[in-house]
Amino acid sequence: MTQAARRPATYEDILALPEHLVGEIVDGELSVSPRPAIPHAIGSSALGATLVTRMQFGDGGPGGWWILDEPELHLAEHVVVPDIAGWRRDRMPEPPREPFLTLAPDWICEVLSPTTGRFDRTRKLPLYARLGVLHLWLLDPALETLETYRLESAHWALLATPAGDEMVRAAPFEAAEVDLSRIWGR
């Protein structure tokens, strides 16, 4: 018995979803997840605020970046919504006015949760490597860990895994110290 071929997912499939769901398309497959839980939102918001202040506005850091929460990225045939993403201003002097971006970020952070962790690790990380994203962070509020990676020869190289209440200077934001104790929402 043969299985009927699935049609590749389209952006119209994402638009048809209820507002409380987030849709993404990787390699033609639609993935749907609920809006983030509060620990996820706290971690993402706190990290994003720190990086926007230091890396986008230059308060306590060098500036030179655009840092965006949950940007919708249309990259080739893929549609993804990372939790936080950053572009060096020398690559993207001004953000576009459209509701999505077509330029791959220089840095992405995914905040892991029970509902998205597997998809983030098994589907999105390989996609980000194929698209040439240079730096990747995985923030895990439940374990209170931050995994930092750099793309090397088309593969992710783990640089560090700080945890708990550590103070962190991690690529590509070595100039901006991040206090992990403020990220966990304790």
Class by SSE composition? alpha+beta
Taking all residues together, what is the mean pLDDT? 93
| Global Rg | 17 Å
Sheet bearing the most strands, described? 6 strands, mixed
Give the fraction of residues assigned to helices.
10-25%
Element-by-element helix/strand order: HEEHEEEEEHEEEEE
Tell me, what is the CATH class? Alpha Beta
- Beta content comes to 25-35%
Tell me which CATH architecture applies here: Alpha-Beta Complex
How many domains, as an integer? 1
Q: Spatial order of the strands in the main sheet?
A: 3-6-7-8-9-10
Enter the CATH topology name.
tt1808, chain A
Q: What's the total helix number?
A: 3
**Terminal Cα span:** 54 Å
Shape: globular
Protein architecture, described:
The chain is α+β, with helices and mostly antiparallel strands. It has 3 helices and 12 strands, in the order αββαβββββαβββββ. The strands form 4 sheets. Strands 3-6-7-8-9-10 form a 6-stranded mixed β-sheet, sandwiched between helices. A two-stranded antiparallel ribbon has the order 1-2. A two-stranded antiparallel sheet has the order 4-5. The longest helix has 19 residues, at 38-56. The radius of gyration is 17 Å and the shape is globular.
Give a concise summary.
With 186 residues, this protein is an alpha+beta fold. 20% of the residues lie in helices and 31% in strands.
